[in-house]
Amino acid sequence: IAERGTEALREHVATQLRRARERSVVLTDAVDDDDLVRQHSKLMSPLVWDLAHIGNQEELWLVRDVGGREPVREDIDNLYDAFQHPRADRPALPLLDPAQARGYVREVRDKVFDVLEGSRLEGRRLETDGFAFGMIVQHEQQHDETMLATHQLRRGAPVLHAPAPPAGRPLPVAEVLVPEGPFAMGTSIEAWALDNERPAHDVHVDAFFIDTAPVTNAAYEAFIAAGGYDDPRWWSEVGWAYRVKADLTAPRFWVRDGAGWLRDRFGHVEPIPPDEPVVHVCFHEALAYATWAGRRLPTEAEWEKAARFDPATGRSRRFPWGDEDPGPEHANLGQRHLSPAPVGAYPAGASPLGVHQLVGDVWEWLDSDFHGYPGFEAFPYREYSEVFFGGDYKMLRGGSFGTDPAAVRATFRNWDHPIRRQIFAGFRCARDARAEELA
Ligand code: AVJ
Ligand code: FE
């Protein structure tokens, strides 16, 4: 992005802003006003809150901060400040109604296009405008994924439709060795990288094996059938306590069908595709599966090395397949398909070491907590990342079928509470390399 001329960059920003808005409109026009204002789950905001919050963040950063313009609706800042009101409390707030919210986001967007016309855009950080637009594009796309998760929780006839993902094919090997040694983790040069992805720094990683694909529904069903949910040996202490308290018996949205299972996907109840990555499991379920299978979850550094390290050059790539932005041949991103794709569906997206589907399909739970990298600087606000450091979170990497390409990179870091299951998260397994395997 940095090498493009200002006009090309302006066009790129405009295109990304429009793409994000098209998606927000699809997700909010798909349901009636009653479904927009209702809370479909205590875990989620009403969709109409997300919509106006998207507009309010855009107003704060692009209209007021970058543009230096007069506020559009200063009076509603508090209502749409995520730190003022937990999700469960948002339906009771005096929110903009659907027509007002739609009018508000349109008015803000008109002003933003005006600001964009006069912007210099040459820099990577907020002072020089380019980053601020990228941050707001990513923010809208992040909330679009959150709204997609709200749709998954909504009951009633299906309103979202998309073609099935491409077919899978068997992978030649189940796991690959990632060699011992340092690699460059994080980035100091990616224009739209958020504060927690910075700066680039060398990390030493011991040799380890990582699965070439995420754990599938069929593999996960074998864990269930083997009594995995009834045996505390496989669970951490806190994981087992949660498994009992929440009465977990299978991934969220799986429904019993005699001796087997079906799944409810955006209101379509269907057989569970055996070769698709399992989705809607929490961190505790992922860890229990891995322990049962005699494996473990990768750490965040291991995942990023598997995704970026090119053994031929020693360099870290932007994406597993190289430095090009994601195309439809590389990864299942962008809500083009409303489910993960079967294992092997994206051979062009594999990493140099032969690891598939690291980006797209399902977010992958990792056995790491959320901290800043050495040299971390909060930017442009502490509430994006820093206030979450050291909290009760586990890391997630790679994005899902619901994540837009603009909002994910091999350096992109996501986090959530280890009990969360409504997000589009699965996992893959890893293991230590034994001495005799390294000879
Ligand atoms: C980075 C996905 C954890 O959705 O809570 C949206 C992103 N921050 N608005 C979230 C975010 C502020 C954040 N995650
Ligand atoms: Fe937000």
TrEMBL record:
Cofactor(s) needed: Fe(2+)
Family statement drawn from the similarity comment of this UniProt entry: Belongs to the EgtB family.
Keyword terms, alphabetized: Iron, Metal-binding, Monooxygenase, Oxidoreductase
Reaction catalysed by this enzyme: gamma-L-glutamyl-L-cysteine + hercynine + O2 = gamma-L-glutamyl-hercynylcysteine S-oxide + H2O
The protein, known as: Hercynine oxygenase
InterPro entries (UniProt xref): CTDL_fold (IPR016187), DinB-like (IPR024775), DinB/YfiT-like (IPR034660), EgtB (IPR017806), EgtB_Actinobacteria (IPR032890), Sulfatase_Mod_Factor_Kinase (IPR051043), SUMF_dom (IPR005532), SUMF_sf (IPR042095)
Family matches, as SUPFAM superfamilies: C-type lectin-like (SSF56436), DinB/YfiT-like putative metalloenzymes (SSF109854)
Entry's EC annotation: 1.14.99.50
GO molecular function, one term: gamma-glutamyl hercynylcysteine sulfoxide synthase activity
Residues making up the signal peptide according to the UniProt record: none
Alphabetized NCBIfam families for the sequence: egtB_TIGR03440
Domain (Sulfatase-modifying factor enzyme-like): residue spans on this chain: 174-431
Start and end residues of each DinB-like domain: 16-147
